[in-house]
Amino acid sequence: MTVTEWVFDKKNFTGTAKTFLTNGICPITKKTKAEFIAEGYTVVSDDDYFSCLEEWENKNLIGKWKEITEEEYDDALNVLPPVAWCEGGFFISERYTSNISDFYQKYNGKYYTSLQRWSTKRENIIKSLLEFIEKLAS
Questions:
Q1: Residue 137 — very low, low, confident or very high, per pLDDT cuts 50/70/90?
Q2: Which of 15, 90, 114, 126 would be a feasible disulfide site paired with 65, CB 3.0-4.6 Å?
Q3: What is the dihedral of CA 119, 125, 127, 128, to 10 degrees?
């Protein structure tokens, strides 16, 4: 059985791994797990790495709303077929990464966008948008 592990800098994590190991050895550099750990890297299983990645994405990518122009909204709507169109909101069909795409929403005559997971319920996306709008107003 092949065991895959991920090597990354947990202290300075920016959403990417340095490399991966197959059965404890990097297939590119031939360094061992012990060598990467001695250099200060963290080595973890698939599940642990993707959990760390999801946590980083949620903190650094997801839900960072910004107000945009109608032209920017229309460009996004017309560049590729929209996904999950509903009440003026849609995902652009090109993904940013994994299951994350730009989400666009028209609300009260204004236009907004943020990165969101395709798996997030629409009601939660709109809730986060309304919280953003409330912060802008205060």
A1: confident
A2: 114
A3: 110
